[in-house]
Amino acid sequence: MASVLVFPATSTSASFLLRPSLPIRFNSLFHNRSTISLTQLPRFGVRCSYAEASINADSNSATIDVVADVRSERIVVLGGSGFVGSAICKAAVSKGIEVVSVSRSGRPTYPGSWIDQVSWIPGDVFYLNWDEVLPGATAVVSTIGGFGSEEQMLRINGEANVVAVNAAKDYGIPKFVFISVHDYNLPSFLLSSGYFAGKRKAESEVLSKYPNSGIVLRPGFIYGKRRVDSYEIPLDLVGEPLERILRSVENFTKPLNSLPASDLILAPPVSVDDVALAAINSITDDDFFGVYTIDQIKEAAKKVKV
Ligand SMILES: NC(=O)c1ccc[n+]([C@@H]2O[C@H](COP(=O)([O-])OP(=O)(O)OC[C@H]3O[C@@H](n4cnc5c(N)ncnc54)[C@H](OP(=O)(O)O)[C@@H]3O)[C@@H](O)[C@H]2O)c1
């Protein structure tokens, strides 16, 4: 662990006392760590000793040593070039988190100052050399998923993520965050389609391999500005007002929630920024694990919103 000496703003070099004294260790000052071992994670230490401004360097008065463990995050976003993945990369960069993205297309072609702060690795999760990607990572976030034939949907929503979860587990990565999907109260014959079956298979893998730190976010329709080549599709023009309307009437529509497939109409959309912030919250808050609904995603996003 590297040690950094920090002079508090109020202290002068004369009041900085290098005397042995009782160290106080604050693990919870920056993060609430309760479930996984900090020793697994890359950290740097901040050590400082200080005394009241009125105490001079020659006095024998007691000093306080503070040793704080600050975790530096390094996340791997699978599908970081996609709609949701790029929002996660951008939010992570803004929080000072080191980000590596993996997708077949690699670095996006559109401009953005945050794009230069992400390491873009082109690759397919089925053929990836994980050695180039995972060592040193503190979390893997998977946004991999998509549509196609039944077989393709099972493969991309399910198997691709199962491969990723197992690779992360093998490399000892402490957290896995999976962007899944809300079930919309669909009848079971529809939930057995490749898309939903793939998602649920991936969810089970996350929750069984990461019982105390795996996170599954289940958003419904996600709105924001989706980039397709050089165009931007403003999904927020529909999604944002729709979210507001559905939230304002949810007390009246609650009785309808038990109807099959009712959530296709009633589940509130969620902004891509909220999904990204909920993912960031799940990376930085170790008390956050398990399956998260649309409302819980909104709540988690609020915790890290500035
Ligand atoms: N958008 C929504 O409204 C919504 C709602 C609920 C849930 N979701 C879920 O949220 C996730 C993200 O959705 P999205 O809209 O952001 O999708 P997206 O824009 O299509 O992003 C998917 C990303 O995964 C990458 N990818 C796909 N196959 C890959 C592979 N074999 N290896 C490496 N990377 C691969 C894609 O990049 P390359 O093609 O370049 O590889 C892309 O970056 C999906 O799982 C989706 O099911 C989305």
Automatic annotation (TrEMBL):
<protein>
    <recommendedName>
        <fullName>NAD-dependent epimerase/dehydratase domain-containing protein</fullName>
    </recommendedName>
</protein>
<dbReference type="GO" id="GO:0044877">
    <property type="term" value="F:protein-containing complex binding"/>
</dbReference>
<dbReference type="InterPro" id="IPR036291">
    <property type="entry name" value="NAD(P)-bd_dom_sf"/>
</dbReference>
<dbReference type="Pfam" id="PF01370">
    <property type="entry name" value="Epimerase"/>
</dbReference>
<feature type="domain" description="NAD-dependent epimerase/dehydratase">
    <location>
        <begin position="75"/>
        <end position="181"/>
    </location>
</feature>
<dbReference type="GO" id="GO:0005739">
    <property type="term" value="C:mitochondrion"/>
</dbReference>
<dbReference type="InterPro" id="IPR001509">
    <property type="entry name" value="Epimerase_deHydtase"/>
</dbReference>
<dbReference type="InterPro" id="IPR051207">
    <property type="entry name" value="ComplexI_NDUFA9_subunit"/>
</dbReference>
